[in-house]
Amino acid sequence: MSFKRFFLISCATALITACQSYTQENQKIRNDLYVGKYKEAATKLDESSLSTEGRNFALFGMEKGMLLYLQGEYPNAVKSWVQSDKKLDDLYTTSISKTTASFVINDSMSDYTGEAHERVLLPLFSSIAFFANNDQNNSTVMIRRTYDIKKELEAENLGENVFKYDAFSHYFSGMVFETKKEWDNAIIEYRNALNNVRSDSAQNNAFRSAEIQILKDIGRLAEFRNRREILSDIQKSNPNLTWEKHNDLLKKSEVFVIYESGNSPVKVPKDIVLPTGQTVVRISFPEYKDIHYKSHSAEIYINEKSIGKTVIMQDIGKMAKQALENRRVRDIAKIAARVIAKDVAARKLGEQNALAGLAANIFSIATETADTRSWTTLPDTIQVLRVSVQPNKEIKLDLKPEYNSTINYKINLAPGEKKLIRLRTFN
């Protein structure tokens, strides 16, 4: 083997090794996140290439917004997420120039346009942040933005089967409407949430607790509003179901517990080898890898008495995997066309100059890496529990995740007051 050929092969090996995936690049950021070092994670994010690369503008805002949100800096978190949402909206129709560039090199060189579930979660988490900051009106605005994005994606068949794992957006909207005393709107939203958890028989067991909670809220408000047809439907399917009277609840205070559990799966590259006649080519496509965690629910105590466990209202991990699966066939076809075009060009160049052909082939292999960019700071599930408490009285509320330390609160609420308590765990 000549020195030049050996040198090119050695360079290729080094280049391939240097081409770290996004998941690998932000590992240190996630390591700080998983142990609750939010400020340190934010500093590393600010110092990373993600903060300066224009093609990653939206992704940087997603990650930064979550780190701010976890620190309770809700206005700044929303500002970051709104900027990302606007960027993704602008990129919804990709320019011809960017499409051409991504075809020639690889998908990670193009602007990050977000997965279907990520686009919906941007305004949804913004809605939670507004509500946590006692701004119910803007919380409602963000929920409506969530619905607009869902309709847009479903019209393009990009949300197919993704949103069946999301009852939370409608359920949370119902809670916000209750806070604003818009009872009929709340009923509509709870019924939409119920339709989601019933949309697929395969997931009924996973969302069974959510279904019961939603039915209780529908029944409570339907009884209060004298909606006999709704009550009749509930009683036919669940004759033994009972709920707190809404008139009694109005005299009390209420705590909304939102538990964000675990870590959303992250993307890793998966290689597929395809024969092309004279040779074989490697296609690299992302797939999601689960991040293990143990605390899958949290138990709530009021004055040391157990009230119940949080129930899953949204499975972000399943939404992510379904979103990627929805575009797999389309994207693999695009990637295959690009790789084959690179291979043909390299072989033609090799016919004229063997060394140049080898260099082109090395470049093709080295640059054909899966786009593993994703919103890595997301939780795996969002869970909810509602707790009614006596007003004008100091209450001790304890949140106990399965394998995490108990978090204690002392609350004293006015009659009719609603308070949001949110909790995130990683292990």
From TrEMBL:
- Superkingdom to which the source organism belongs: Bacteria
**UniProt xrefs under PROSITE patterns:** PROKAR_LIPOPROTEIN (PS51257)
Q: What is this protein called?
A: Uncharacterized protein
Origin organism is Silvanigrella aquatica
Q: What is the lineage of its organism?
A: Bacteria, Pseudomonadati, Bdellovibrionota, Oligoflexia, Silvanigrellales
